[in-house]
Write a structure and sequence with these properties.
This protein is α+β, with helices and mostly antiparallel strands and about 130 residues long. The protein contains 2 helices and 4 strands. The termini are far apart.
Length: about 130
Amino acid sequence: MNTRQPGFSMLEVVVAMILLSVILTALAGLTFNTAKQAVLNTDGTKVQAASLETVNRFSALPYTSLAGAAGCDTVGTSNSRFRRCVTVTTTGNSAQVEVVTTPLQRTASAITVRFNRVAPASTNPLCIGC
């Protein structure tokens, strides 16, 4: 006579629970690292956006106004603030503009952007006989 009932034994259930806990622990660690990297990428994108805003502003300014607009300011929201410093070095008829954007929370690295602006020509090349 067979007195054993169909189903799982206690040992099989315990082994299955241990395997499940190991797998879930590994997945939890992977999920945490992925979320952390996503936050860092978002912070880096915000720093790039703050830099690009300044680069666009200095690209659109008249050449004679570049030196007067240089300096440092703090921008951003309460949880993502940045310090932007702009220096303008004029040599002859060209100016090198350097924009350094540093996050104040230190979650992303600072970004430095350099570009050159050239003084406009004093005469209009399209005007013949003016």
